[in-house]
Amino acid sequence: MRHWYARGLLAWALWPASVLFRLAVALRRLLYWLRLLPSGHPGIAVIVVGNLVAGGSGKTPLALWIAEHLKRKGWTPAIVSRGYGAKAGPPRAATIASEAQDVGDEPILLARRSGCPVWIGADRLAVIEALRAVHDDVDVMVLDDGLQDCRLRRGVEIAVVDRRGFGNGFMRPVSPLREPRSRLRSVDAVVSHGAPVKGFAMRLAGAELHRMANAAERRPASAFAGQKVHAVAGIGDPNRFFVHLARLGVKLTPHPFPDHHRFTPQELDFGDDAVVLMTEKDAVKLRRVAQPNWWVLPVTAELDAAFGDWLSEKLDGFRRSKAA
Fold first, then answer.
1. Whole-prediction pTM value?
2. What is the Cα–Cα distance from 206 to 200, expressed in whole angstroms?
3. How many CA atoms lie less than 13 Å away from 261 in the CB half-sphere?
Protein backbone atom coordinates (compact mmCIF):
# COMPACT_ATOMS: atom_id res chain seq x y z
CA MET A 1 0.00 0.00 0.00
CA ARG A 2 2.77 2.45 0.92
CA HIS A 3 4.53 1.63 -2.36
CA TRP A 4 1.51 2.58 -4.47
CA TYR A 5 0.87 5.67 -2.33
CA ALA A 6 4.46 6.84 -2.86
CA ARG A 7 4.20 6.24 -6.60
CA GLY A 8 0.99 8.27 -6.70
CA LEU A 9 2.61 11.19 -4.89
CA LEU A 10 5.60 11.06 -7.26
CA ALA A 11 3.30 11.07 -10.30
CA TRP A 12 1.49 14.15 -9.08
CA ALA A 13 4.77 15.88 -8.27
CA LEU A 14 6.03 15.25 -11.80
CA TRP A 15 2.71 16.07 -13.49
CA PRO A 16 3.71 19.69 -14.41
CA ALA A 17 6.86 18.39 -16.11
CA SER A 18 4.74 15.88 -18.03
CA VAL A 19 2.46 18.67 -19.26
CA LEU A 20 5.45 20.73 -20.39
CA PHE A 21 6.91 17.70 -22.18
CA ARG A 22 3.63 17.15 -24.03
CA LEU A 23 3.49 20.80 -25.10
CA ALA A 24 7.10 20.64 -26.29
CA VAL A 25 6.38 17.51 -28.35
CA ALA A 26 3.31 19.12 -29.93
CA LEU A 27 5.16 22.37 -30.68
CA ARG A 28 8.10 20.53 -32.24
CA ARG A 29 5.82 18.49 -34.49
CA LEU A 30 3.94 21.64 -35.53
CA LEU A 31 7.16 23.46 -36.45
CA TYR A 32 8.23 20.57 -38.66
CA TRP A 33 4.76 20.36 -40.22
CA LEU A 34 4.94 24.09 -41.06
CA ARG A 35 8.46 23.51 -42.47
CA LEU A 36 9.87 26.07 -40.02
CA LEU A 37 12.35 23.41 -38.92
CA PRO A 38 14.36 21.68 -41.68
CA SER A 39 13.45 18.16 -42.74
CA GLY A 40 14.26 15.99 -45.70
CA HIS A 41 13.26 12.91 -47.65
CA PRO A 42 15.94 10.48 -48.88
CA GLY A 43 14.23 9.98 -52.25
CA ILE A 44 13.29 6.32 -51.81
CA ALA A 45 10.51 4.53 -49.96
CA VAL A 46 10.87 4.76 -46.16
CA ILE A 47 8.98 2.59 -43.68
CA VAL A 48 9.21 3.61 -40.03
CA VAL A 49 8.43 1.02 -37.37
CA GLY A 50 8.07 2.73 -34.02
CA ASN A 51 6.05 2.98 -30.84
CA LEU A 52 4.75 5.57 -28.42
CA VAL A 53 6.21 4.08 -25.26
CA ALA A 54 9.93 4.05 -24.50
CA GLY A 55 11.30 0.53 -24.49
CA GLY A 56 10.80 -2.51 -26.64
CA SER A 57 7.34 -3.41 -27.89
CA GLY A 58 8.21 -5.84 -30.68
CA LYS A 59 9.59 -3.33 -33.20
CA THR A 60 12.66 -5.37 -34.12
CA PRO A 61 10.82 -8.63 -34.93
CA LEU A 62 8.33 -6.61 -36.96
CA ALA A 63 11.14 -4.83 -38.86
CA LEU A 64 12.61 -8.25 -39.67
CA TRP A 65 9.24 -9.53 -40.87
CA ILE A 66 8.82 -6.48 -43.10
CA ALA A 67 12.31 -6.87 -44.60
CA GLU A 68 11.60 -10.52 -45.45
CA HIS A 69 8.21 -9.62 -46.92
CA LEU A 70 9.76 -6.90 -49.08
CA LYS A 71 12.40 -9.28 -50.45
CA ARG A 72 9.69 -11.76 -51.42
CA LYS A 73 7.89 -8.97 -53.28
CA GLY A 74 10.94 -8.00 -55.33
CA TRP A 75 12.20 -5.06 -53.29
CA THR A 76 15.79 -4.61 -52.13
CA PRO A 77 15.51 -3.39 -48.53
CA ALA A 78 18.02 -2.07 -46.04
CA ILE A 79 17.51 -1.46 -42.34
CA VAL A 80 18.45 1.64 -40.36
CA SER A 81 18.72 1.75 -36.58
CA ARG A 82 19.86 4.43 -34.20
CA GLY A 83 22.02 1.80 -32.48
CA TYR A 84 20.96 2.35 -28.89
CA GLY A 85 23.94 2.16 -26.56
CA ALA A 86 26.47 2.30 -29.41
CA LYS A 87 29.55 4.49 -29.40
CA ALA A 88 29.03 7.90 -30.98
CA GLY A 89 30.43 8.15 -34.45
CA PRO A 90 29.66 8.55 -38.14
CA PRO A 91 27.08 6.44 -40.02
CA ARG A 92 28.40 2.89 -40.30
CA ALA A 93 27.42 -0.67 -41.06
CA ALA A 94 26.47 -3.19 -38.40
CA THR A 95 27.36 -6.77 -39.28
CA ILE A 96 27.29 -10.15 -37.58
CA ALA A 97 30.95 -9.57 -36.69
CA SER A 98 30.29 -6.22 -34.98
CA GLU A 99 30.47 -5.75 -31.22
CA ALA A 100 27.43 -4.59 -29.28
CA GLN A 101 29.33 -1.75 -27.60
CA ASP A 102 30.21 -0.38 -31.05
CA VAL A 103 26.85 -0.64 -32.85
CA GLY A 104 24.27 -1.71 -30.26
CA ASP A 105 22.64 -5.08 -29.70
CA GLU A 106 19.59 -4.89 -31.99
CA PRO A 107 21.54 -3.95 -35.16
CA ILE A 108 23.67 -7.10 -34.84
CA LEU A 109 20.52 -9.18 -34.48
CA LEU A 110 18.99 -7.41 -37.49
CA ALA A 111 22.09 -8.07 -39.59
CA ARG A 112 22.19 -11.73 -38.59
CA ARG A 113 18.53 -12.45 -39.22
CA SER A 114 17.71 -10.25 -42.23
CA GLY A 115 20.66 -10.67 -44.59
CA CYS A 116 20.09 -7.01 -45.51
CA PRO A 117 22.50 -4.09 -45.16
CA VAL A 118 22.06 -2.68 -41.65
CA TRP A 119 23.49 0.73 -40.79
CA ILE A 120 23.37 2.82 -37.63
CA GLY A 121 23.75 6.44 -36.58
CA ALA A 122 22.01 9.23 -34.69
CA ASP A 123 21.25 11.26 -37.84
CA ARG A 124 19.01 8.94 -39.82
CA LEU A 125 19.06 11.09 -42.96
CA ALA A 126 22.86 11.00 -42.97
CA VAL A 127 22.81 7.25 -42.33
CA ILE A 128 20.53 6.62 -45.31
CA GLU A 129 22.69 8.81 -47.55
CA ALA A 130 25.86 6.97 -46.51
CA LEU A 131 24.21 3.57 -46.88
CA ARG A 132 22.95 4.33 -50.39
CA ALA A 133 26.42 5.47 -51.44
CA VAL A 134 27.61 1.92 -50.74
CA HIS A 135 24.46 -0.02 -51.64
CA ASP A 136 23.02 1.77 -54.67
CA ASP A 137 20.64 -1.13 -55.40
CA VAL A 138 18.64 -0.54 -52.20
CA ASP A 139 15.18 0.82 -53.04
CA VAL A 140 13.40 0.83 -49.67
CA MET A 141 14.47 1.64 -46.11
CA VAL A 142 13.04 0.00 -43.01
CA LEU A 143 13.65 2.00 -39.84
CA ASP A 144 13.71 0.12 -36.55
CA ASP A 145 12.38 2.96 -34.37
CA GLY A 146 12.21 6.59 -35.44
CA LEU A 147 8.53 7.43 -35.13
CA GLN A 148 9.46 10.58 -33.20
CA ASP A 149 12.16 11.65 -35.71
CA CYS A 150 10.29 14.50 -37.42
CA ARG A 151 13.39 15.57 -39.36
CA LEU A 152 13.10 12.50 -41.59
CA ARG A 153 10.11 12.61 -43.93
CA ARG A 154 8.81 9.15 -44.65
CA GLY A 155 6.23 7.28 -46.70
CA VAL A 156 4.82 4.75 -44.22
CA GLU A 157 4.47 5.00 -40.43
CA ILE A 158 3.69 1.89 -38.40
CA ALA A 159 3.13 2.08 -34.65
CA VAL A 160 3.47 -1.06 -32.51
CA VAL A 161 1.48 -1.22 -29.29
CA ASP A 162 2.15 -4.06 -26.86
CA ARG A 163 0.24 -5.34 -23.84
CA ARG A 164 1.62 -2.52 -21.65
CA GLY A 165 -0.57 -0.11 -23.57
CA PHE A 166 -0.06 3.54 -22.66
CA GLY A 167 0.65 3.37 -18.95
CA ASN A 168 -1.23 5.93 -16.89
CA GLY A 169 -1.76 8.18 -19.92
CA PHE A 170 0.71 10.80 -18.75
CA MET A 171 3.81 11.53 -20.77
CA ARG A 172 7.41 11.54 -19.64
CA PRO A 173 8.75 11.81 -16.98
CA VAL A 174 5.64 10.49 -15.21
CA SER A 175 5.42 7.45 -17.49
CA PRO A 176 7.37 6.08 -20.49
CA LEU A 177 4.91 7.62 -22.99
CA ARG A 178 6.86 9.62 -25.60
CA GLU A 179 3.85 10.89 -27.55
CA PRO A 180 0.15 11.09 -26.68
CA ARG A 181 -2.15 8.23 -27.61
CA SER A 182 -3.83 10.53 -30.15
CA ARG A 183 -0.68 10.13 -32.29
CA LEU A 184 -2.06 6.76 -33.40
CA ARG A 185 -4.63 8.62 -35.49
CA SER A 186 -1.92 10.02 -37.76
CA VAL A 187 0.10 6.85 -38.43
CA ASP A 188 -0.61 4.67 -41.45
CA ALA A 189 -1.07 1.45 -39.48
CA VAL A 190 -1.25 0.22 -35.92
CA VAL A 191 0.11 -3.23 -35.07
CA SER A 192 -1.28 -4.75 -31.89
CA HIS A 193 1.19 -6.97 -30.07
CA GLY A 194 -1.24 -8.31 -27.49
CA ALA A 195 -2.70 -4.86 -26.84
CA PRO A 196 -6.41 -3.98 -26.61
CA VAL A 197 -6.24 -1.59 -29.57
CA LYS A 198 -7.65 -1.81 -33.05
CA GLY A 199 -5.02 -2.78 -35.61
CA PHE A 200 -3.24 -5.63 -37.34
CA ALA A 201 -2.52 -8.44 -34.89
CA MET A 202 1.04 -9.63 -34.27
CA ARG A 203 2.39 -12.42 -32.10
CA LEU A 204 5.89 -13.75 -31.48
CA ALA A 205 6.45 -17.44 -32.18
CA GLY A 206 9.40 -19.61 -31.25
CA ALA A 207 9.67 -22.94 -29.49
CA GLU A 208 13.17 -24.18 -30.36
CA LEU A 209 16.32 -23.13 -28.53
CA HIS A 210 19.94 -23.46 -29.54
CA ARG A 211 23.03 -23.72 -27.38
CA MET A 212 24.91 -20.42 -27.48
CA ALA A 213 28.30 -22.13 -27.69
CA ASN A 214 27.13 -24.29 -30.61
CA ALA A 215 24.14 -23.00 -32.58
CA ALA A 216 23.91 -26.30 -34.45
CA GLU A 217 22.75 -27.99 -31.24
CA ARG A 218 19.04 -27.39 -30.92
CA ARG A 219 16.34 -28.54 -28.55
CA PRO A 220 12.61 -27.90 -28.27
CA ALA A 221 11.55 -25.95 -25.21
CA SER A 222 9.76 -29.06 -23.99
CA ALA A 223 13.19 -30.67 -23.47
CA PHE A 224 13.72 -28.34 -20.50
CA ALA A 225 10.45 -29.23 -18.79
CA GLY A 226 11.04 -30.60 -15.32
CA GLN A 227 14.53 -29.09 -15.08
CA LYS A 228 15.70 -26.23 -12.92
CA VAL A 229 15.94 -23.30 -15.32
CA HIS A 230 17.04 -19.68 -15.01
CA ALA A 231 15.63 -17.21 -17.54
CA VAL A 232 17.22 -13.80 -18.08
CA ALA A 233 15.92 -10.94 -20.18
CA GLY A 234 17.20 -7.41 -20.73
CA ILE A 235 14.40 -6.27 -23.03
CA GLY A 236 11.68 -3.63 -22.80
CA ASP A 237 9.20 -6.07 -21.24
CA PRO A 238 11.15 -8.97 -19.68
CA ASN A 239 7.95 -10.58 -18.43
CA ARG A 240 6.90 -11.16 -22.03
CA PHE A 241 9.85 -13.54 -22.44
CA PHE A 242 9.15 -15.32 -19.15
CA VAL A 243 5.47 -15.79 -19.99
CA HIS A 244 6.38 -17.12 -23.44
CA LEU A 245 8.65 -19.75 -21.89
CA ALA A 246 6.04 -20.67 -19.30
CA ARG A 247 3.49 -21.26 -22.04
CA LEU A 248 5.98 -23.67 -23.62
CA GLY A 249 5.99 -25.68 -20.40
CA VAL A 250 9.24 -24.37 -18.91
CA LYS A 251 9.23 -23.85 -15.13
CA LEU A 252 11.71 -21.08 -14.59
CA THR A 253 13.25 -18.67 -12.14
CA PRO A 254 12.97 -15.22 -13.79
CA HIS A 255 15.82 -12.71 -13.73
CA PRO A 256 14.68 -9.40 -15.31
CA PHE A 257 17.21 -6.74 -16.29
CA PRO A 258 16.82 -3.23 -17.78
CA ASP A 259 16.38 -2.91 -21.53
CA HIS A 260 19.70 -3.10 -23.43
CA HIS A 261 21.50 -4.18 -20.26
CA ARG A 262 25.18 -4.92 -20.82
CA PHE A 263 25.56 -8.28 -19.16
CA THR A 264 28.68 -9.65 -17.57
CA PRO A 265 29.20 -13.41 -17.21
CA GLN A 266 29.16 -13.00 -13.43
CA GLU A 267 25.57 -11.73 -13.55
CA LEU A 268 24.51 -15.03 -15.10
CA ASP A 269 26.26 -17.14 -12.49
CA PHE A 270 23.45 -18.19 -10.16
CA GLY A 271 25.53 -20.52 -8.03
CA ASP A 272 24.51 -23.75 -9.75
CA ASP A 273 24.89 -25.54 -13.07
CA ALA A 274 21.26 -25.08 -14.09
CA VAL A 275 20.37 -24.12 -17.64
CA VAL A 276 20.19 -20.39 -18.39
CA LEU A 277 17.77 -19.33 -21.12
CA MET A 278 17.95 -15.91 -22.75
CA THR A 279 16.63 -13.85 -25.64
CA GLU A 280 18.46 -13.59 -28.93
CA LYS A 281 18.93 -9.86 -28.38
CA ASP A 282 20.72 -10.47 -25.08
CA ALA A 283 22.80 -13.30 -26.52
CA VAL A 284 24.62 -11.07 -29.02
CA LYS A 285 26.27 -9.28 -26.09
CA LEU A 286 27.53 -12.50 -24.52
CA ARG A 287 28.58 -14.61 -27.51
CA ARG A 288 32.32 -14.12 -26.82
CA VAL A 289 31.95 -15.63 -23.34
CA ALA A 290 29.33 -18.29 -24.06
CA GLN A 291 28.98 -21.00 -21.41
CA PRO A 292 27.87 -24.59 -22.08
CA ASN A 293 24.65 -24.16 -20.06
CA TRP A 294 23.50 -21.02 -21.88
CA TRP A 295 20.68 -21.45 -24.39
CA VAL A 296 19.02 -18.94 -26.72
CA LEU A 297 15.40 -18.68 -27.87
CA PRO A 298 14.95 -16.98 -31.27
CA VAL A 299 11.45 -15.65 -31.97
CA THR A 300 9.74 -14.67 -35.20
CA ALA A 301 6.87 -12.26 -35.75
CA GLU A 302 3.63 -13.64 -37.14
CA LEU A 303 1.14 -11.15 -38.56
CA ASP A 304 -2.29 -10.99 -40.10
CA ALA A 305 -2.11 -11.86 -43.79
CA ALA A 306 -3.95 -8.60 -44.43
CA PHE A 307 -0.97 -6.64 -43.13
CA GLY A 308 1.32 -7.87 -45.92
CA ASP A 309 -1.32 -7.07 -48.53
CA TRP A 310 -1.80 -3.59 -47.09
CA LEU A 311 1.94 -2.88 -47.02
CA SER A 312 2.45 -4.12 -50.60
CA GLU A 313 -0.36 -1.87 -51.79
CA LYS A 314 1.16 1.16 -50.03
CA LEU A 315 4.57 0.55 -51.61
CA ASP A 316 3.12 -0.18 -55.04
CA GLY A 317 1.54 3.26 -54.83
CA PHE A 318 4.99 4.72 -54.13
CA ARG A 319 6.40 2.88 -57.17
CA ARG A 320 3.63 4.26 -59.38
CA SER A 321 4.17 7.81 -58.17
CA LYS A 322 7.92 7.55 -58.85
CA ALA A 323 7.29 6.20 -62.34
CA ALA A 324 4.80 8.94 -63.21
1. 0.89
2. 20
3. 20
